[in-house]
Amino acid sequence: MPATKIGVRDRLHRFDMRYTPYIxxxxxxxxxxxxxxxxxxxxxxxxxxxxxxxxxTRDGWAGFENFTRLxxxxxxxxxxxxxxxxxxxSTVPQLFAALIIANILNRRLRATTWFRVGxxxxxxxxxxASTLIFDVVFAKQYGLANWVLSLGGVDGVDWRAExxxxxxxxxxxxxxxxxxxxxxxxxxxxxxxxxxxxxxSALDGASPWKQLWKITVPGIRPVVxxxxxxxxxxxxxxxxxxxxxxxxxxxxxxxxxxEWQTIAQLIYKVGWKDLxxxxxxxxxxxxxxxxxIVAIVNALITNRVxxxxx
Amino acid sequence: xxxxxxxTPGSIWNYVVLVGIIAFFAFPLYWMFxxxxxxxxxxxNIPPKVLPGSRFLDNVREVFGLSEVYFSASLIxxxxxxxxxxxxxxxxxxxxxxxxxxxxxxxxxxxxxxVILTLTVPNQLGIVALYIVMGKMPSSDGTGWxxxxxxxxxxxxxxxxxxxxxxxxxxxxxxxxxxxxxxxxGATTLRTYWSIVVPAIRPALAVLGLLSFVTSWNDFQWPLIxxxxxxxxxxxxxxxxxxxxxxVLYRRVLAGAFLATVPLLIMLFVGGKQIVRGIMxxxxxx
Lengths: 310, 286
Description:
The complex is a heterodimer. By secondary structure, chain A is mainly α.
């Protein structure tokens, strides 16, 4: 073989070894930079400006005007309260129910695959579609929820009239969607908890309930923390359910008096209905900070409760 | 006594509870179908009608016949968007996953840490700026990408979860010796990827493909922002248009919702086992 040919081949080979890896990962990083990281940072710049969609000439610096306005904005505080209310009503029962279901599925049962696939039905259902269904279920006059209540002799509830009832209805939709998914995550983790721990505790006469709290839950702590963080991030950004619970979604008001308007929904309203992108950007930065703080606090608490004192 | 929960036979009550829970999960889908097959009068029936009616095809025909919302076009748009996104995610994420799992290059670990960090960054929070960025994208008429499908497709072409998932799977399922043997035989990196890695990761590709399709199909917030008010949005935005206004016909809206859910139900029916396994494996490795 001629020496030059080997040289070219050799050089190609070296180029391949050295640079191809970067070419392979480049698409991810390029797209992330342009459509993920840059908007997030640029959002900070937009929040310091007067940026209106209907009047592009008004694009000067606003300083911290958008942020100071936030503090006196009752709509913002109302939305923040709603977001936390719905968040608590959904996350806590959701993860608790997921834990119980996973614990059942962790027993020796028939047809477990069937149950597991069934648990994913809500996960694959579009939130838009399921929310529209729950709209009918929680209708005031002919809704199924009120009919069931009437069977128990309870008067019908106007689900969209009060904060508590609208929060409960929306939390039900969120719980429906995520219980099964979280149960599968817990089940996966439960299967790798060492069995000799159970054997030892059974010798001490521990009940199944006690085993669940003393062995299983501490054993799957990392996954519990993961789900808590995940549902915090998702729960505080709740958008579709409150949007479509509204009889007229285009308004984005979250009820006649903002009973269930969430922050994500308010950001949409301020940005694309009131056309004030600068103020909407300030809100989303505030929400970002809130999410980070809550996620950290939650992770710390979960770590404590789960027995991570070591 | 003395047994792990996994060894304890489930009692009849376990089955009762589980069947009740599955019924709760399946119920909204069933109810959607019931209303999609009914008349306006059926909706105002007390006690509620619990069996499907016979008007499903009429309602579907009505949804497709609407001139305010082009529902059939929106379904085609959703198929288009989700298919392109899925193919792209599978290709680029498996390439990147392969690089992170098996290739040696400077800065590999630091870059992987960045990928993992981006998993926790909620992109939604930069949505205002993303809208502005899209407005600045080059286009023939100078108005940017907002209002076009490009704005929906391009940000979803790759994602951090896909890269992470592929990396984990490739580490565990493609032996280093096989890669090295291919190298010794003179195979290029791409050739190695195509003839050794791809055949070995087919199950993972199936799971990631199903999950990507579902995520893309179901996305609502960003498509609503960038496509809201346009004539040809995706099906989720079209559904929210159907449900807007003072006089909403739920049998029609839910017939549309049912049509937009069926493709995903089929995917779950066909690939359910794989999706379950994929989600559970992903959980343990986190």
